[in-house]
Amino acid sequence: KAGVTQTPRYLIKTRGQQVTLSCSPISGHRSVSWYQQTPGQGLQFLFEYFSETQRNKGNFPGRFSGRQFSNSRSEMNVSTLELGDSALYLCASSGVTGGTDTQYFGPGTRLTVL
Amino acid sequence: AQSVTQLDSQVPVFEEAPVELRCNYSSSVSVYLFWYVQYPNQGLQLLLKYLSGSTLVKGINGFEAEFNKSQTSFHLRKPSVHISDTAEYFCAVSEAGTASKLTFGTGTRLQVTL
Question: Average of pLDDT values for A74-90?
Fold first, then answer.
């Protein structure tokens, strides 16, 4: 089975711009979660989508949004980028594997905001 | 809400020595517990998980962890480490019943030297 894929792997933007990141989950997985990883704040949960609906949301401003398509692929959008948005954005898909719910992570998208 | 504390930010150890990475959690509800490993410039790889049942959990690469409910701990151990185990290790918790919204600890850097 193919793993979780994220595109692009690296991205450089300037303050004020917006960015869209993409995540394709493991085949058969219907849940996609997004996390932000920074040296200062560590790994923080952004949101989770399940069957095209946002099921959980972390404590991030409204500039961070997402969506999920009918094929379970998910996109995350950040508008009006700030320097502090520079981070590794990780996507994880989960589904019942071997009878238990398990979350698998993609390689991440490294976003640099200049 | 849940929280995770990883007591050691860095753990230096010689190759072939045993190691224990400590993790304590706090939660008012039943939880699932996970250990992930992150190699440089990569995403997170699941090492092992505790969902229910036996409190001693065995994972990949020779790692194991023991769930201690009374001490709210989930320490990770390996009897003999290898240079290739050098990486960042994250303990994570989720509310029991779902693994799609994880709360992570701040990570422990395991540095294995000859």
Answer: 97
Over residues A91-110, the pLDDT tens digits come to 999 877 655 667 899 999 99
Nearest CB partner across the interface for A105, out of B32, B43, B105:
B43
Of residues B90, B98, B101, nearest to A43 (C-beta): B90
Taking residues B2-28, what's their average pLDDT? 96
B9-20: pLDDT as tens digits: 999 999 999 999
Write down the domain spans for chain B.
Answer: 3-113
Using one digit for the tens of pLDDT, what is the confidence trace for A24-39? 999 988 999 999 999 9
Is residue B96 less than 8 Å (CB to CB) from chain A?
A: no
Name the architecture of domain B3-113: Sandwich (2.60)
Enter the DSSP assignment of A86.
-
Count of A-B CB contacts under 8 Å? 60
Closest C-alpha to B92, from B4, B14, B17: B4
* Predicted local distance difference test score (pLDDT) of residue A99: 55
DSSP A31-60: EEEEEEEETTTEEEEEEEEETTEEEEE-S-
Asked if B67 contacts B33 with a C-beta cutoff of 8 angstroms, the reply is yes
In chain B, which ranges are E strands? 3-5, 10-14, 19-21, 24-26, 31-38, 44-50, 56-58, 64-68, 73-78, 87-95, 103-104, 108-113
